Amino acid sequence: MSEPIDYDLFVIGGGINGVGIACDASGRGLSVGLCEMHDLASGTSSQSSKLIHGGLRYLEQYQFRLVREALAEREVLLKKAPHIITPLLFRLPHHPHLRPRWLIRLGLFLYDHLSRRVSLPASKSVLLAEPEGLIDSLQHGFEYADAKVDDARLVLLNALATRGNGGDIHNYCRCVQAQRGDGHWRLWLQHRGQDELQQITCKVLVNAAGPWLQQTYDEVLQRPCPKQMRLVKGSHIVVPRLNASDKAYLLQNTDGRIVFVIPYQQHYSLIGTTDEDYQGDPAAACIAEVEIDYLIQSVARYFKRRLRREEIVSHYAGVRPLFATQGQVAAAELSRDYSFELDGEPGQAALVSVFGGKITTYRKLSEAVVDSLAAYLPSMTGAWTASTVLPGGDFTDVAELQREFAGRYPFLPDDLLQRYLSAYGTRVVELLQASRCLDDLGEHFGAGLYRREVDYLMQQEWAVTAQDILWRRTKLGLQMSDTTSLENYMAASSMSLKR
């Protein structure tokens, strides 16, 4: 067995918090590694509502600090990744018997002013026009702005930035054991398809396993978890576009919960989420029939079109690791705030455990975690992520970027170019390289997926399976029914790389 690789900091967990911490630390002059037992973003971080938002409904729970911080981060992230994070207008139809007009107006005023707003317009009252497809009794409402995100690609971009800073990303790699020694941790990693274990050492170990945090404590660290978590399942359905509007809708329900209807991948609407307590393996979470009924009924209270179950194109369920609070608190009312526990005195091997959190505040959490390690890693430099763009985000005007690349690659159909730019930004150059015609992209697997992109995703973005590409690196799984040729090609490519 080869000598262990030594890191300053090593992260268990390839979700948004794990890669965010790895990215932040790697940019401060630290040697960093990360392992993810499945695919990057394959858990909670690819099964969200795809929003960067302050959390308007959290104001009713008096979570003003969380909302203020999330709103400030919304501005930061819009500039960090303008290719995958873009503004989105929301319509909130008014049902007087659910929440009074003055209360909504007050909430939106706070939402506008809790943090400095630069990129997005202020909220306003609106008349709901006929083309929106809402039932006739809904004539008044409100409009406010947040942002949408490709959640899985946000994880990938942080992983790419980590690698760009010299960090190591071990995808499909499980940490099977961790032992605390004198001033360092010793870890044993098992890569997919390999029997031999790889040893590494690190000064600081970060448990960012999300819903698997407790399991990591039990099986890998073999020590008690310092906090009790409560697993909450949130489910979504994807259906053909409910209406032609490019706006999202926030629907109030009689139980006090809300449901989003969000324009998704041009031709679809994303509807969610639910809040159900969950027991069992987070990887086995799936939408329940009662959740499908709940989402369909929520839409029926607002839209004229009657959504049928057979129209559902896709669905997914993610498990959120939230704080367990004292008393009987409904799952929907649990805080989405984050915290972390730091165990170990300076000079000892430190253990950091991450609890809770949401995509919008991942960068702030990551910065706080790494800041807290200054006494353990005195050589590290200061915070840097607030003003640095993520890979592919080095542009300021989307329309200008589209014109530039349309001129550089005139052979690309408009919809294909648009998809490339919204996923890869300026890294389209690395994807397309010297391509001069569509034939240069190689075999077409369907739905606009060509061999050149598959090769790029396998070689540069850690993709291993067809599912990695179709549901996380892209969302083309919504359109591609036959994946046989893609699976065969990827299997053959993987074998040739191993030789």
From TrEMBL:
This is Glycerol-3-phosphate dehydrogenase. The lineage of its organism: Bacteria, Pseudomonadati, Pseudomonadota, Gammaproteobacteria, Cellvibrionales. Keywords: FAD, Flavoprotein, Oxidoreductase. PANTHER family: GLYCEROL-3-PHOSPHATE DEHYDROGENASE, GLYCEROL-3-PHOSPHATE DEHYDROGENASE, MITOCHONDRIAL. Its cofactor is FAD. It is an enzyme of class 1 (oxidoreductase). Its EC number is 1.1.5.3. Belongs to the FAD-dependent glycerol-3-phosphate dehydrogenase family. Residues 385-481 form the Alpha-glycerophosphate oxidase C-terminal domain. GO terms for cellular component: glycerol-3-phosphate dehydrogenase (FAD) complex. The keyword Lipoprotein does not apply. InterPro entries: DAO_C, DAO_C_sf, FAD-dep_OxRdtase, FAD/NAD-bd_sf, G3P_DH_FAD-dep.
